[in-house]
Amino acid sequence: MIIESNPAVQEKLNSYSPKIKKRLKELRRLILDTAKDLKIEKIEETLKWGEPSYLVKKGSTIRMDWKAKNPNQFGLYFKCTSKLVVSFKEVFGDLFKYENKRALLFNLDESLPKDQLKQCIAAALCYHSVKNQKFLGLK
To answer: First-to-last CA distance in the chain?
Structure first.
């Protein structure tokens, strides 16, 4: 898999405290591992709205960030006009903390539900292939 990475992403990650940087790198690894598992040929890693973002052909953009207004959490952000977060709520219920139709939020001190999170990431990376399936094919 080709990772087309903008150097500004690493600069952004380096701007966070070590604890936040570690958690965001954990999300990054899940995104890249999921893309590799899906045999995606190329993923673009860039900044969108100042946030590390991941784009693939036929997918929906995934962003990740930590925000000072909620210092004990970090999140994975999705296009709010997509069916992604609504479908995640339907399939995974209260496993995740949600921010409206745009994000999955995580506590800095809790472990990630990696298997379920990889399913969410896969749905976003394949979004244009699964968007017409009930619950994006997750159920």
So the answer is: 28
Range of the domain at 111: 2-131
Cα–Cα distance measured from residue 21 to residue 126, given in angstroms and rounded to the nearest whole number: 27
In the chain, how many domains are there?
Answer: 1
Residues in Cβ contact with 114 at an 8 Å cutoff, skipping those fewer than 6 apart: 30
Q: Considering only CA atoms, which of 71, 112, 70 is closest in space to residue 92?
A: 112
CATH code for the domain in which residue 21 is found:
3.90.1150.200
> Phi, psi at residue 124, to the nearest 5°?
-70, -40
CA 137 to chain centre: 18
Distance from C-alpha of 48 to C-alpha of 61, rounded to nearest angstrom: 9
Is residue 25 a part of any domain in this protein?
yes
* Domain annotation covers residue 24: yes
Q: What is the tens place of the pLDDT at every residue in 76-117?
A: 999 999 999 999 999 999 999 999 999 999 999 999 999 999
pLDDT of res. 139: 75
Q: Whose structure tokens read 């970090």? A: 74
Q: Determine what percent of the chain falls in helix, strand and coil, rounding each to the nearest 5.
A: 45, 25, 30
Residue 139 lies in a domain: no
